[in-house]
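Quick start: load a record and inspect it. Here is Ribosomal RNA small subunit methyltransferase E:
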Amino acid sequence: MQRYFLATENFKGDLVRLTGDEAHHIARVMRMAADDQIICCNESGKSAIVELTQVEKEEVYGRIRQWLDENSELPVEVTLAQGLPKGDKLEMIIQKATELGVTAITPVAMARSIVKLDPKKAAKKQERWKKIAKEAAEQSHRQRVPEIQSVQTLKELIKQAGPFDLVLAAYEEEGKSGNHEGLPELLSGVQEGSRILFVIGPEGGFSSEEIVMLKDAGIFPVSLGPRILRTETAGLYSLSVLSYHFELLR
Ligand code: SAM
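Running the structure step on this input writes:
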């Protein structure tokens, strides 16, 4: 069943109104008609089965038949602060991180990030990234679409780290030196509902100044194991660890 993420104003009592891309997808792409059923998710992450009552090109109406008791979100909120990687890798990271339950992704322009995003192109890129996140959330039956934030510098990111319950940086040197106990130890003290910020370096890793900056801000450098993972693997591995810890070990 197709899944659509709608703003609060699209819900009025048990009536649902879809416009724009969603209406186009239902009417033109899926060629749905009255009595067909879809799933609609609201901004608080609740999802319902909706029976279509009227399908026009630009507008589609439906009636809520049943609210669902879905539970496809991670029990912790995870923001992945991804050192800007080369080429289109970030698109793949966004897609896979969404499948793995990420709450938000913040691209971070780091010292060793090869790619320098042209501010004029950044807004267009962000729109594409948001679309990728939405499609991946639909495909993976998420109840929420991850937020894709604008590109920050590491300094800006650290300034916004205050509200997080735990801030970690996957640091390759921890991996190389065999100090693998940090992440398991830190996670053992984290409650469900906590907010976690996980910082991943770009292909070239963190500069020594960046690691000092992170440590000075009280951010824990942790190992992701003895192998050196590609930047696009590291964030996904981190999310997999969190899913294992908070969803499978329960
Ligand atoms: N250029 C670095 C080097 O040769 O040591 C490797 C950087 S690695 C390709 C990219 C990022 O993935 C790192 O900055 C780190 O955030 C993460 N990463 C990869 N392997 C890791 C590991 N074993 N432990 C912790 N972080 C790791």
